[in-house]
Amino acid sequence: MRIACLQRLSILAQAPRQGDDGATLANVGELEVMPKVLVLVAGDSDSSKSIAQSVREGAAAVRFTEVDIRAAESCDAADLRDYDGIVVVGSGGHVTPAFATLIASGDVTDANAFTNTVMASAGFDDGAILDRLASLGGIIVAERPSGLAADARAKLIGARVAKVAEWVRHALSHEHARHHHAH
């Protein structure tokens, strides 16, 4: 059993193979399962920006994950729907008025808009932001309690959101393939 686990891990650690035309496996067969994660900055402090960078680093460490960082002021509900994972970042308990308006908009509260979107928060003092995100109906990934510094916790939550978004995206691709072949 231990040998099988080691073999599997060594296979997962290998770099993607190159095809004859130079295309990697990511370009050939894994494009449809590449997760996109948005780091949505809902605070305007320097601490929020630092935490956002740490979340980005954590999410980007998950293979094939695309990560964008955007301020809440530059997003609307349609923008949010383009992502498999959203991490709302702030500092303390305060959010920008733009984030409060965005999260309360009718376009965001559509019952099915975020059913398969993985959501989390980083840098906030309490769970109020998670409560707001949960009201959107997405999949909530909570931060595990730890004694780590804020930036280290932010990297972990970024990686967790990217990994869960990858799993959901992969599962949905199989569901789509099954329905496509059934017709």
Tell me the layout of helices and strands.
Layout: H1 2-13, H2 25-28, E1 36-41, H3 46-60, E2 66-71, H4 77-80, E3 85-92, H5 97-104, E4 118-124, H6 128-134, E5 139-140, H7 150-182
Parallel strand pairs: 1-2, 1-3, 3-4, 4-5
Helix pairs in contact: 3-7
Note down, in words, how this protein is organized.
The termini are far apart. The chain is an alpha/beta fold. 45% of the residues lie in helices and 16% in strands. The protein is built from seven helices and five strands; from the N terminus they run ααβαβαβαβαβα. The chain is globular. The protein has one domain: Flavodoxin domain (Rossmann fold, 3-Layer(aba) Sandwich), CATH 3.40.50.360. Helix 6 (128-134) links the parallel strand 4 and strand 5 (139-140).
